[in-house]
Design brief:
Chain lengths: ~120, ~110
Amino acid sequence: GAVVSQHPSRVICKSGTSVKIECRSLDFQATTMFWYRQFPKQSLMLMATSNEGSKATYEQGVEKDKFLINHASLTLSTLTVTSAHPEDSSFYICSARLTGTDRRYGYTFGSGTRLTVV
Amino acid sequence: LAKTTQPISMDSYEGQEVNITCSHNNIATNDYITWYQQFPSQGPRFIIQGYKTKVTNEVASLFIPADRKSSTLSLPRVSLSDTAVYYCLVGGSNNDMRFGAGTRLTVKP
């Protein structure tokens, strides 16, 4: 149980275009989801916290107009990288917290999306 | 915000026990300690979670001293497939899910 599906797993796009990444909780409801970016040989960097039905909370230094997050339902959050540039190429990972649980075993991660901007 | 400190890297050999220690000096009363494993180009995978003393599951043990300012992940008899990055996270009700640098474990034949 508690599976998070992330799609696509890989995407290549041209500079200037936008890319949408989906994060779905398959068998549970997720009030809160998290989006991370990970560069090679580095740790996961939290980009934003996505709350169902409200605006996302972005970490300092993350452009909210460039990385659009929508969490319209309890099972789906999307991250849209707008006007992508080569420096946006990275590994993006989402995570979800199980609604109604305490902190124990409450977080599960998607398999990640490898974005390459050419 | 409980910051964590782990060794950057560790090497081991197949069949050995590996212990990775994480320091979290400002852990809060309601914080749990969770360890994740990450392989290249994959999302982190839950390994084990604990609050105090010792927790054991089918893949690892977690030792937490009484003051809870550190924790040790113990992997018994590692194999080549245990080569990965291991992250220690400490958090409570504030939804804090920020990762530290992690420990890159390399298991050699």
